Phosphatidylinositol phosphate synthase
Amino acid sequence: MASDRQPTRERFVARSAERREVVRTRLIESRLTPNAISLTGFALNVVAAVLVLERLYFLAGIAFIVGSVCDTLDGRYSRMSGKGSPFGAFLDSTLDRIEEGVVLAAVAVIFAQDGKDWAAGAVVIAVLASLMVSYTRARAEALGVDCKVGLATRPVRVVILSAGLILAKGASLVDVELLEPAVYVLAALSVFTVFQRIFHVRAALNAPAAP
């Protein structure tokens, strides 16, 4: 039975690889640039923030997810196509920080309007901590220390905020309110991650040098 399936599986794998190569070649030959993908992601996150302010949480969550996917694709496309540049890498990193902040700022406005002061404060902490998560990694790498440790990496933060938006009160058919709990979780995990990275860097810098 296994021997009968093997050729079929191999053909499927070969055809899949062939299709991926065709798509890759067409993308490389196209006018699409990594910066265009980065700017598209930025625009979608701004749209998400506007939708949050309009309390259209489900649509905001979709826009935030798609925009965040663009953020993951621009770097990969840059490496795959060879179209990347030092400025493109700088632009990508800068826009990533702005995108997360602009959506969370809109969430903070909503909480403030609803009189949820503690939740609004948690959003501020989440924004500051998420910026520090990125900053600690950049500073560590400037010191020659690899620093990708920590629970609240960017993908994890995107998943938490996306879940909170899509499952916010009145956003979906399910009668739940997860935006506020998501913000508290996001703030706590981001702060925890900052300390994880601080202790990681301290341990790395204090470690005895290899003979």
Summary: The two ends are 55 Å apart (CA to CA). The helical segments are 2-29, 34-53, 57-81, 86-113, 117-142, 154-166, 179-206. The chain has a mean pLDDT of 86.
